[in-house]
Every structure is written in structure tokens, then in C-alpha cells.
Amino acid sequence: MNRTVSTPGKITILGEYAVMYGKTGVSAALQERVKVTAKDHQGIRISLNGKTEEYSRDKAKELFLQANSMIRRKDVEGLDMFLEKRFPPLAALAWKCMELKGANEGVELDILYSLPDAAGLGASSAISSAVSAAIIGYKTEVEKRKVFDASMFGDSIAHLTPSGLDCETTIKGGFLSYRKGFNPNRIDVDYELPIVVGDTGKRSKAVDMVKKVEDLRTGDPRANEWLNELDEAAREGLEAIKKQDIQELAFNINKSQELLRHLKVSTPEIENLIITSLRAGAIAAEITGQGGGGAMFALCEKPEDVEKVAEAIRKEGGSVIKTVIGGPGLKVDER
């Protein structure tokens, strides 16, 4: 085995949270990518941005069983602690991939990425998808199904009950529409849109935010109405993407942000960057990811507006990624 795989980060541009309840979600691949190289090895050796740890297959299996049990029990606290150490979740994922592949040997993984963690940019999904494809391969339909199953396991450690939209986006790229329980659809368009990501630097835990929305949904009848409105905005935004109607897309992104604010997943820091971006020339701005901190993205109609928005975000103390959405998905280099 000597296989290098790269996958893009992603943002959910419409339908965040609603997609978990069977509503429509629309996502897009980012220009920024994760790169994973897999080679044969006696045990399981993992290098993550230059830091390395090594595990026996038996230890990796133990970690897999531990993580799988916590996912089944919905042990949020346990998963939070498991994630803090960074390497054990990767060892657990590597063991699952080796089992799905039917291999008795180990693997050496070299993982490189620059996406910020817990910022709604799909770092965990992109890493999970790239690791899975690097170990399993991505040629046959059987391999592709196994890669998705394994990447969902990796993403479940980070998000407990992922919808599948993130993993599908990092694999397929472009713009995707999705409903839980249905196959995702890659939108048949071939263009990219300039955005600016503003990161507050404040982190939240995805599983905590998911629970917060679920508690609100069960305790406040209006929450289900807001989720339905998020679904409507996603469906209308989807049609706008197909028609390349950027103004209509922007309208539905801004509408979605208002609804996410009602669901109490926004923060003063995020709101400040959103208002700042719109004043600087962005035509839409919204939370990316689970909220409670993390990042937002600003959609720009023209490339020349990107730097104005980026500079405005920097002045407010946010870190900036200038990028485009709608690019390619998973790529494999077999040697």
C-alpha cells in the first residue's frame, strides 16, 4: 500500500441543524484540503501535522470498541474526553478501516491539514474521509461504500449523530443537496463562489450544541417552525444555485442566519463578524458549523470585495480564510 488521498473541507451554506431532522441541507466543498498518505506498517503509526504516535493493532481495536460503545450509548462527556487526545480517535478509525478492508497488517498514516478544528469547516469529516479512502481504496463501488461507512464512524466520534452531509461533501465536492435517509445529490453546476471565513477563535463542542437545539425543539413549539423555515430557505437556495442566481442565494443565506439566531446557536462574537462583513460589502453572512462560537462565512458577489470583507473581519479580531466554494472532492494518487 502506498496511497495518497486529499479531500476538501466543507461548509453547510443552508439547512444547518434542520438537516438532522430530515430537512434539506445544502453544502459546498472548500478550496482548502486535507492530505493523507497511507503505507504498509507492522502496527498503526499516525503522524498528524508532524506529531507522531504509534499503537499496536490490539490497542487500536480496544480504542475502536471504546469509541463505538460511547457512540451507541450517546455518551457525550466520554466522547469529548476521547477527542481531546486527538490520536486515539484516529487509531480507532484506522482499525475500523483495516477491518473493512480485510487486512491483517497495520498502516502508517501521514496526515497534513490546516483547517481549524471545531470551526464548522469540516476538518473531522475531511480527515475521516481521507484516512478511510487512503487505507481502503476508492476504485470499486464496494470500496466507496466502505469508505463512506468508515468516514461516518470517524465523524460520529466528533458529532455523535452526523447527518452524513459533511462526509458526502468532502468525498463528492462541488455543491450538494441532502436529506437524511436519501442519497445526496451533487448539484449539476460548474462554478465557484468567493467567500471569506471569519473565525472568532472561540470554540464550542458540537455534541453540546446539538443537544442544546434538541432540548429547544422539545421544549419550545416555535423551534419546529424555525426548522421548517430553514428547510424552505434551503430548498429555495438550492434552486438559486442551479439558476446561478447569487442574489436569491444570498437572500436565503441571510434568512437562514436569522433562524439560527432564533435557535440560540449564534453568539455576540459571531453576530459582530456577520454585521461587520455585511457593512464591508458581503451580500450574505451566516454561521458555519454548530455555532456557539467558531466561525462564520461571508458570501461575496465579486472577487474584489473579498479583501474588503477580510480586512474588516481582521480589524474586529477575527482570523480570516479567503477561499472559494464549489471545488473538487476526493482525489486519489495510487502508487
List the topology elements.
Blueprint lengths: L1 E13 L10 E17 L2 E5 L2 E5 L1 H17 L2 H9 L2 H15 L4 E7 L10 H14 L4 H19 L5 H8 L2 E4 L6 E2 L6 E7 L6 H14 L1 H23 L2 H17 L5 H13 L3 E5 L6 E5 L4 H12 L3 E7 L5 E4 L1
Parallel strand pairs: 3-5
Antiparallel strand pairs: 1-2, 1-12, 2-5, 2-6, 3-4, 6-7, 8-10, 8-11, 9-10
Give an overview of the whole structure.
The chain has 335 residues and is of the alpha+beta class. The chain folds into two domains: 187 residues, Ribosomal Protein S5, domain 2 (2-Layer Sandwich), CATH 3.30.230.10; 133 residues, Alpha-Beta Plaits (2-Layer Sandwich). The chain contains eleven helices and twelve strands. The strands form two sheets. Strands 1, 2, 3, 4, 5, 6, 7 and 12 form an eight-stranded mixed beta sheet that branches. Strands 9-10-8-11 form a four-stranded antiparallel beta sheet. Helix 4 crosses helix 6. The mean pLDDT is 92.
Which percent range describes the beta-strand content? 15-25%
**Termini separation (Å)?**
8 Å
Identify the CATH architecture of the largest domain: 2-Layer Sandwich
Order of helices and strands: EEEEHHHEHHHEEEHHHHEEHEE
Low-confidence stretches: none
CATH overall fold name of the largest domain: Ribosomal Protein S5, domain 2
Sheet with most strands: 8 strands, mixed
Our count of helices gives 11
Fraction in helix: 40-55%
Average pLDDT, rounded to a whole number, is: 92
Q: Round the Cα radius of gyration to an integer and report it.
A: 19 Å
Number of strands: 12
Structural class: alpha+beta
Structural domains: how many:
2
Shape: globular
CATH class of the largest domain, please? Alpha Beta
